[in-house]
């Protein structure tokens, strides 16, 4: 808690006109603004003096809780020492430290980190790495990329091409050519109210064999999936599904990319989803929890074999014609180092695992509440799916979002699914307040 009360932190409303907000109904928002003016630990404070529990860790990112003093201190110290240094042909020490810390946490064999500024950039970078990897090996016909229906891989052209959420795609033309999609794995008639991984559906990975049969393996560069899909509404991989994808990729020389932008850094009570599920991909995309949401940063983590393949041209020549002005930015790197230290020193990843049962029981207590058709969970992620109002998809969940906000809890909704992804510091009383608030909002629905 800040020293000041929430009322004291209330601020004057700024002029809202010029800002074009992302993924937001701008006109509605500007008539009904909700501004967060400060945050600490599990809580956010608003312009009009409310205290809210943050049940989604910002946007699945503030894993260490808001404004952690050690991370804040590291960012301040870095800003005073080195604001920026050229990212190409020059560098700075902190980013090397961060690469070592991240790869030390990663599954065995994942030994290299390439830094970017967001999850979307991580995805586009990983797709480019996969294409270039095959080309360097003389396999230049491997250009096809395989995503999955309902997948979310950010908003770059690569990410929306392999992604599978229609509103994110349909306005933007033809996107990348040569992309195909696996079927999604969500099936309520088989898997409703699963706790942890659903039992039914590992065979859905076999559709990759059909895609290979259609296009031929020699044309396919990579498969990209979220090990646990978040933004589409928390879809868990059926037990055995990811291993089956791994096996089929290995059989056909296809690279496997796990998009761990939300699942990395403790969200599933393990360092990565890959480590929790015991399936190691060739490339892992990350962002969000890397800096606990404090400074924008993402990373692509690569197997040694991929890095080594690039390191074959003449020494001194650029090996990968890709990078961003702000790749490995000093402030982000300092925030990342401090964040990973905090996870370790405070045992937050183990804590997430130890709280999983409590969150699970609390979430599943919502079974039987009005309009609830499914509850599912793993690690510090949960979802409550609602029956949509006929002809008005998303409206029911949006009513719950607004009511919960008024009652002091920030939830996230996508379609008619309510998602929970609290900071890993969440305690029993926060879980109780989150769930009881949602329960009361569901009961208040008309
Ligand atoms: C799995 C996944 N990939 C990529 C992204 C895009 O990340 P960003 O919004 O940082 O570009 C997200 C964002 O939620 C995500 O969940």
Automatic annotation (TrEMBL):
It holds the Pfam family Aminotran_3. Keywords: Aminotransferase, Pyridoxal phosphate, Pyruvate, Transferase. This is Omega amino acid--pyruvate aminotransferase. SUPFAM superfamilies: PLP-dependent transferases. GO terms for biological process: biotin biosynthetic process. One of its GO terms (molecular function) is pyridoxal phosphate binding. Belongs to the class-III pyridoxal-phosphate-dependent aminotransferase family. The keyword ATP-binding does not apply. It comes from Woeseia oceani. InterPro entries: Aminotrans_3 (IPR005814), Aminotrans_3_PPA_site (IPR049704), PyrdxlP-dep_Trfase (IPR015424), PyrdxlP-dep_Trfase_major (IPR015421), PyrdxlP-dep_Trfase_small (IPR015422). The keyword Transferase applies. Its cofactor is pyridoxal 5'-phosphate. It comes from the Bacteria.
């Amino acid at each position: 808690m800040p020293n000041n009360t929430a009322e004291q932190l209330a601020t004057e409303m700024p002029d809202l006109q010029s800002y074009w907000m992302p993924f937001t109904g701008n006109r509605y928002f500007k008539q009904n603004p909700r501004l967060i003016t400060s945050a600490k630990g599990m809580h956010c404070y608003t312009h009009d003096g409310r205290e809210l529990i943050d049940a989604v860790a910002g946007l699945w990112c503030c894993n260490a809780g808001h404004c952690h003093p050690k991370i804040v201190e590291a960012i301040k110290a870095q800003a005073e020492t080195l604001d920026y240094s050229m990212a190409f042909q020059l560098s700075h020490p902190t980013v090397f430290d961060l690469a070592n810390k991240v790869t030390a946490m990663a599954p065995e064999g994942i030994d290299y980190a390439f830094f970017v500024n967001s999850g979307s950039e991580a995805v586009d970078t990983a797709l480019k790495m996969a294409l270039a990897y095959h080309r360097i090996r003389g396999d230049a016909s491997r250009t096809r990329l395989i995503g999955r229906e309902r997948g979310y891989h950010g908003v770059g052209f690569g990410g929306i091409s392999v992604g599978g959420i229609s509103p994110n795609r349909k306005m933007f033309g033809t996107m990348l050519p040569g992309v195909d999609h696996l079927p999604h794995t969500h099936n309520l008639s088989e898997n409703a109210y699963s706790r942890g991984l659903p039992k039914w559906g590992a065979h859905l990975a076999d559709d990759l064999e059909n895609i290979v049969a259609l296009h031929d393996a020699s044309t396919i560069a990579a498969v990209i999936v979220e090990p646990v899909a978040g933004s589409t509404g928390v879809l868990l991989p059926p037990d055995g599904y990811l291993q089956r994808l791994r096996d089929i990729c290995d059989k056909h020389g296809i690279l496997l990319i796990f998009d761990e932008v939300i699942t990395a850094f403790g969200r599933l009570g393990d360092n990565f989803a890959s480590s929790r599920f015991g399936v190691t991909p060739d490339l892992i995309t990350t962002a969000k929890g890397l800096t606990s949401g404090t400074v924008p940063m993402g990373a692509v983590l690569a197997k040694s074999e991929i890095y080594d393949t690039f390191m074959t041209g003449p020494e001194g020549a650029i090996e990968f014609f890709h990078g961003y002005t702000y790749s490995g930015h000093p402030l982000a790197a300092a925030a990342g180092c401090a964040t990973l230290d905090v996870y370790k020193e405070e045992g937050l990843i183990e804590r997430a695992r130890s709280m999983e049962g409590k969150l699970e029981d609390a979430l599943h207590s919502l079974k039987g509440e009005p309009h609830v058709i499914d509850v599912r969970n793993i690690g510090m992620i949960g979802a409550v799916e609602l029956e949509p109002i006929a002809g008005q998809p998303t409206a029911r969940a949006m009513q719950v979002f607004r009511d919960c906000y008024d009652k002091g809890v920030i939830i996230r909704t996508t379609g008619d699914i309510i998602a929970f992804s609290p900071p890993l510091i969440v305690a029993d009383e926060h879980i109780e307040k989150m769930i009881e608030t949602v329960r009361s909002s569901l009961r208040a629905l008309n």
